[in-house]
Design brief:
A 5-stranded mixed barrel has the order 5-8-7-6-9, surrounded by 4 helices. About 30% of the residues lie in helices and about 25% in strands. The chain is α/β, with parallel strands linked by helices and about 270 residues long. It starts with a helix and ends with a helix. Strand 7, helix 5 and strand 8 form a beta-alpha-beta unit. It has one domain: Rossmann fold (3-Layer(aba) Sandwich). It binds hypoxanthine (HPA). The site of hypoxanthine has 13 residues, from strand 5, strand 8 and strand 9.
């Protein structure tokens, strides 16, 4: 708790008492949304008490606070992953800090592999639900100030935000998938049999992040909107000419970033 409050107080001191209404997590290759934030205040993670270093490719390490879609927002340009070796309380610390700062909604994004056969590289997928194969970040003493010991997860992703996003996508002529995101630890990409297994248990896309952040937000009853950019398709067939590669993932996410940014901006505009 002290850790969270110290970090929140430091950031608050940089925001001139303004309260962010939306927190945004920008995944691999999606950090460009932060460039659209007007009058940005940039707060490097390295300057924030109790934050660890962000080491993942395609991830910078800053909070960017400022105006987007007419709202004061705070965005994470880069996130922390379990595979970087950090414990879950460090992976989710920025989310709890944003909750402390007063966000009323959390928008999360990521690059993900498409395990649904209908998905293609460059597709955007609204996350409708998830399957968590990472350790649960709420294991340990419960932070009663944030939420209950046994949080409900009946509606992990906000149905109202999903409906609005679908309406906006129609208006903007943006094609959307809607599916289940599964997170495993990484950092290895999946074997052909693991991709098959994840499809069998109901996943549409797979990644290495996001769910811990969503869990701590839902613990505190903060509504969540999530979006995956499909950066590669699952290969089940031991293809001899294909290889999953982190740089390709970042490139594919970059190419889809404009559509995701347009959608996030409109969705934020429409928030009350
Ligand atoms: N698997 C896991 N994580 C990922 C993938 C994938 O295929 N693509 C992007 N992140």
């Amino acid at each position: 708790m002290i850790e969270i409050n110290q970090a929140a107080e430091y950031i608050q001191s940089k925001l001139n008492n303004r309260i962010p209404t939306v927190g945004i997590v920008l995944g691999s290759g999606l950090g460009r949304l932060a460039d659209e934030i007007e009058n940005p205040t940039i707060i490097p993670y390295a300057d924030i008490p109790n934050f660890v270093k962000s080491t993942a490719i395609g991830h910078k390490g800053n909070f960017i606070a400022g105006m987007l879609g007419g709202k004061f927002v705070i965005a994470m340009q880069g996130r922390f992953h379990y595979y970087e070796g950090y414990p879950m309380n460090k992976v989710t610390l920025p989310i709890r800090v944003m909750i402390r700062l007063g966000i009323q909604a959390l928008f999360v994004s990521n690059a993900a592999g498409g395990v649904n056969f209908d998905y293609r590289v460059g597709d955007l997928m609204i996350i409708r639900d998830h399957i968590n194969l990472l350790p649960n970040p709420l294991i340990g003493p419960n932070l009663d100030e944030f939420g209950p010991r046994f949080p409900d997860m009946t509606r992990p992703y906000d149905l109202n935000l999903i409906r609005r996003a679908e309406a906006i996508a129609k208006e903007l002529n943006i094609a959307l998938q809607k599916g289940v995101y599964l997170a495993s630890s990484g950092p290895t990409y999946e074997t052909p049999s693991e991709y098959k297994y994840f499809r069998l248990i109901g996943a549409d896309a797979v990644g290495m992040s996001t769910i811990p952040e969503v869990i701590v937000a839902r613990h505190a009853d903060v509504p969540v909107f999530g979006m995956s950019v499909i950066t590669n398709e699952a290969h089940d067939d031991y293809a001899e000419d294909f290889k999953n590669d982190g740089d390709d993932v970042v490139r594919a996410a970059n190419a889809a970033a404009d559509r995701m940014i347009a959608l996030f901006r409109r969705l934020i505009e429409q928030l009350n």
